[in-house]
Amino acid sequence: MTEARLGLPNLGFGVGxxxxxxxxxxxxxxxxxxxxxxxxxxxxxxxxPRQVLEQIVEQYKVxxxxxxxxxxxxxxxxxxYLGKLKTLAEWTNAAWISDHVCWTGVNxxxxxxxxxxxxxxxxxxxxxxxxxxxQDFLERPLVLENPSTxxxxxxxxxxxxxxVTRMAEESDCGLLLDVNNVYVSCFNHDLDPEDFxxxxxxxxxxxxxxxxxxxxxxxIIDTHDNFVVDxxxxxxxxxxxxxxxxSTLLEWDAQIPDFDVVHGEVLKARDLIQDGxxxxxxxxxxxxxxxxxxxxxxxxxxxxxVPQPAVFVAAEVE
Amino acid sequence: xxxxxxxxxxxxxxxxxxxxxxGIAAGIESPTAKQQIDIDxxxxxxxxxxxxxxxxxxxxxxxxNAYFARLVxxxxxxxxxxxxxxxxETFESFTFGYVNDSPxxxxxxxxxxxxxxxxLTDTRPSDVPKPxxxxxxxxxxxxxxxxxxxxxxxxxxxxxxxxxxxxxxIPPERVSEIRFVPVPSLRLMEAAFPVHEYVTxxxxxxxxxxxxxxxxxxxxxxxxFVVRRGTVSRAEFQLLRAIIDGNSLGQAIELAAEVMPAGSxxxxxxxxxxxxxxxxxxxxxxxxxxxxx
Lengths: 318, 293
Description:
The structure holds 2 protein chains of 2 kinds.
Chain A: E1 13-16, H1 22-28, E2 34-38, H2 48-59, E3 61-65, H3 79-92, E4 97-100, H4 121-138, E5 142-145, H5 160-171, E6 174-178, H6 179-188, H7 193-198, E7 205-211, E8 214-215, E9 220-221, H8 230-243, E10 247-251, H9 259-275, H10 282-289
Parallel strand pairs in A: 1-2, 1-10, 2-3, 3-4, 4-5, 5-6, 6-7, 7-10
Antiparallel strand pairs in A: 8-9
Chain B: H1 7-18, H2 24-29, H3 31-36, H4 56-78, H5 80-86, H6 88-101, H7 116-122, H8 133-152, H9 164-168, E1 179-182, E2 187-191, H10 195-203, E3 216-223, E4 226-231, H11 234-244, H12 249-258, H13 265-282, E5 285-289
Antiparallel strand pairs in B: 1-5, 2-3, 3-4
Helix pairs in contact in B: 4-6, 5-6, 5-8, 5-10, 7-8, 8-10, 11-12
């Protein structure tokens, strides 16, 4: 029988580390349980991001979250990348390394998007084999997240949750359940998000993600630019009940508010678990529930709604 | 039942379709995409399922739009002054062309802009006299890229740097033999416009006018994790360039003098001591070395 969370600790309620919050965190040392870092923003850094991270890891527990592992790509695994990932994990003493069940490019290119896979036996064999190779190299389990997706393929022969369950069990990896992504994908693909969450191997879920999104009416885009909506909180409550509770992380990547607002949003998860309800202020409810305009038919460059990931570190110049 | 394709074919097809500059439909009809999956736009449902609210083409277009929007947005963060100078729409158009010309092949978005200045150089209109508006943009993109590389690259913060007194122990008869070892972040850049001032103004939320051309010789480095820049004279710039190329001070002076107007020797002689003091106090060098030290 698999140990809950693969034996990894429940770190509590964390926040995604973003450059705009560096000064606040360094000055005020907020009482945050843990931080999640974007691996690619630090693995090659010799400057301020690395220096800030050095101070963060002295005071906080850190988890590494990547966006370029491309575990589902049919290109060869990038061992230079994996080597840098391993070195960073050792340096930060990361509790675990996560990425996504997706691919980001082929033919040597990287589109910097989390592209969906067809869920079938060929893909399963391919992904399981690569996870095992990566885990052997990293000498630790990978924790993989369900991405928000906007298409499904006729090549799929099984549900996403069946695919993820078999993938986790056959490769012995952990799962990062992004509750918002479940909601987004299920809306986009006419599926029941509760069925998705109930069907997963709960003992393999190591971490939850929470985030806001943009409802475009005909589809939802995972923009990480808003408060968490009530329906996602309801799904979070279900996921908490089914897993017994795991590390919970709030992502906010665009139109990022003050640190206290971001931290306050993840602490709603704690309140929800303890009190069974979440109180939203009027503005955050209005922002989170509003419907935005995004017409995919407008064509390239005219769609203002950018799905995650879009995390870039800008230079500081005197 | 639809015949299942290989995962590789599907991925190559998706990438070709969503990165096509003319949109999803043009991508599906492109010969490269058809090599992988030979379907027409009308038959896209054979590959991508529709939802109850959106057709297959619109669903795939979410990825196509996102591909360009994300990368253009990241380039806008790396090149804020270039974006300001061009205006949003023209910047979008230029970066759209750049992304098509030089798609990312790195796991890091930090590498995305490394060829942008070269792209602007390659596509510079040949009928505009130099130095003109295109050269201003090229210089802007160069300096902004240099700032990005210096900001996140190796720096001097954990290293001992040269102190003014370190130079005083060099025997006068051997001064010409010394080699300066630069800090890893030190960069020189020659521009036809004072782009450094323009970048600073944009970063301070001002709305600068496009400056008149003026030879601008920049020294860019990093101290305490913040990028610093300053200007130097032509003589000092040439000397620094020769020193950074690994020449001894004596050789560097000779090389620098070769490209300077006649009579510049006097400028070197008059300013050398002052320059040394400045280089040391600004933290541009780690140390000086003598061949037998």
